[in-house]
TrEMBL record:
Keyword Plastid found: no
Superkingdom of origin organism: Bacteria
Name the record gives this protein: Glycosyltransferase family 4 protein
GO molecular function, one term: glycosyltransferase activity
SUPFAM superfamilies tied to this protein: UDP-Glycosyltransferase/glycogen phosphorylase (SSF53756)
Organism this protein belongs to: Carboxydichorda subterranea
């Protein structure tokens, strides 16, 4: 990583979960990429990424997961946020104006923004507010967008969308364009770290999928497509890295298919999966929907040929035919034909990989994301008032 981005202010990050998803890694990348005058506070339920946040210098304030007992979770959230806002003030119940204003940057859950805003008002804690939308998916997505837009419009806080497509969806749900800024996701350069040895079979060419094993990620469609690819690329091997609710179903599907059984490995979660991409010949991202995939950006950074569906913000990530190949979401036949084409042509894979690396360097570095976010912090902090929208 190059020089860290300086930020002199007080930051409180609020997260609805602390698992191993894109929202959590987005915030972790910011914590690592910014040179803080004082440690950032992170308010979140406990989860597997907590040790990494602590190692990066964040001070953790934990609350109970709101998906369990809502009332218990809400009380513990108020307590955790109150502690984060009061920390360093010398008072458990600070009075407005007695200490520097904090920026409270809420990610992913607009209902937490509402609770945070009310808690800061109750506590009379000087604070500005900012929200980043990472996308809503599944059957309830439309309702979630409408609820988020209502809360954001009511509070009139600045909103960051991680892609132009995400901004469009928020506007469609009723959020005024003047509240929105787009800051594309960025990731640290995985080539700055040594790649671990490839721990899987020796078959070539190698196709790699990294992601949650869930409906949204299109992994069922990937298996169907790879069955069609097999006769055209008999040596190709597919490795699926990740865990999720579809794991047992996918394992049974592979076991029962003669064409998949010896050529597909369901590897489960693998530490350092981004660095493993350097060993893959093709990275496949067949998602049915995405805001802006960190896995896709990591594949660009590794200079890998990327075959992906044009879902959500993915069309902003990949230039079709230059830094990857795009297919319609859910189109198994188109996905199979695209994989066959790229697997059969080493020269094409090399050109796509070179284009992918250029795309990463010009648009999706973590330094670019951190610099744009810090500039937004500066604009938000300099506004008078109680956390209202852009200047």
């Amino acid at each position: 990583m190059t020089a860290r981005i300086p930020w002199p202010g007080r930051l409180v990050y609020v997260l609805p979960y602390l698992g191993i998803g894109g929202t959590e890694y987005h915030v972790l990348h910011l914590v690592r990429a910014i040179a803080w005058r004082e440690p950032p506070r992170v308010v979140a339920p406990d989860g597997p990424l907590r040790p990494e946040f602590v190692a990066a210098g964040a001070r953790m304030h934990l609350f109970d997961d709101l998906t369990g007992n809502w009332w218990v979770g809400m009380r513990t959230f108020r307590r955790a946020l109150g502690e984060a806002l009061a920390e360093g003030s010398g008072s458990a119940a600070p009075v407005a104006g007695t200490r520097a204003s904090s920026i409270v940057h809420v990610h992913g859950a607009a209902e937490l923004l509402w609770l945070a805003y009310r808690q800061a008002r109750r506590q009379k804690a000087p604070a500005r507010f900012l929200f980043t939308s990472h996308g809503y998916f599944g059957p309830g997505a439309r309702t979630s967008y409408r609820l988020a837009a209502w809360i954001l419009r009511r509070l009139r806080v600045p909103v960051i969308a991680v892609s132009q497509e995400e901004a469009r969806r928020l506007q469609k749900a009723g959020l005024p364009p003047g509240q929105l800024r787009v800051v594309h996701n960025g990731v640290p350069d995985p080539l700055q770290q040594p790649a671990p040895a490839w721990p899987f079979g020796d078959g070539r060419p190698r196709v790699l999928f990294v992601g949650r094993l869930a409906e949204q990620k299109g992994v069922r469609q990937l298996l169907e497509a790879f069955e069609q690819v097999s006769p055209a690329a008999p040596g190709a091997r597919l490795v699926i890295v990740g865990a999720g609710p579809l794991e047992a179903e996918l394992r049974e599907r592979i076991r029962r298919s003669e064409s998949l059984r010896t050529r597909v490995e369901l590897a489960g979660p693998v530490p350092g999966a981004a660095r493993l991409m350097a060993h893959a010949d093709v990275v496949c991202m067949p998602s049915l929907d995405e805001a802006l995939s960190l896995v896709g950006i990591e594949a660009l950074a590794c200079g890998r040929a990327l075959v992906a569906s044009r879902a959500g913000g993915t069309g902003e990530l990949i230039e079709d035919g230059t830094s990857g190949v795009l297919v319609p979401p859910g189109d198994v036949t188109a996905l199979a034909r695209a994989l066959e084409r790229v697997l059969a042509d080493p020269g094409l894979r090399e050109r796509l990989g070179e284009g992918a690396r250029r795309r990463y360097e010009t648009a999706f570095t973590v330094e670019a994301m951190a610099a744009k976010t810090a500039a937004i912090y500066a604009g938000s902090e300099s506004r008078p008032g109680d956390g209202r929208a852009w200047r």
